[in-house]
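The records we work with from here on pair a chain with its fold. These numbers are not coordinates but entries in a learned vocabulary of local backbone shapes. To see the layout at work, look at the sequence and tokens printed below.

. . .
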Amino acid sequence: MKKLITVILVVGLLAGMTTFALAKGTAKEAKSMLDKAVKYYKANGKDKAFAAFDDQKGQFVKEDLYIYVLDPKGVVVSHGANAKLIGQNLIDLKDSDGKTFIKVILDEAKAKGKGIMDYKWTNPTSKKVEQKSIFFEKVGDLVIACGYYK
């Protein structure tokens, strides 16, 4: 009986961990995180904001939501999910459907100041290519973005 209870507890714990690991942020949470990041950037400046955005245990990374920032040429200057992308020029990067989504984001941000668009990207939580919607906003010459996986 004790073994059965132990097995049930372990299975329950593992199921809970799997659910937590695959938790997905919502559109509302992504938009809220972007708004919070823009406000934080404006109040604290680039250096402090980038340090906060890049902190994977900080306030700008939650489940599969994270902030990233692009310069006008498509260079990643801050990234909450993958620090290896910082300094990389992604202007010509294509999603699995061939969409140059970084260029589209930058063009729309330049024309409209902010927006939302869809593309496909690898979810850092599930490690699978998934449909993603990204909210973005131009702040000065930079574009701050936060997306969610559908």
